[in-house]
Fold this sequence. Notes:
Elements: H1 6-9, E1 12-13, H2 15-22, H3 26-34, E2 41-43, E3 48-52, H4 53-62
Antiparallel strand pairs: 1-3, 2-3
Amino acid sequence: xxxxxxxxxxxxxxxxxxxxxxxxxxxxxxxxxxxxxxxxxxxxxxxxxxxxxxxxxxxxxxxx
Length: 64
């Protein structure tokens, strides 16, 4: 897995922030990520998920 600088990825959102944007439960957002429908990045030692704003907007456009 290649390391990428955070400033190269653009604005990042937590699963909770994405859930609020999409009016979904946080577990649904995580499930979308697990299925590959919504790309995410793992951050920190705990492996928290972060979603790029650009990917979330693309997901919205695909699923209108």
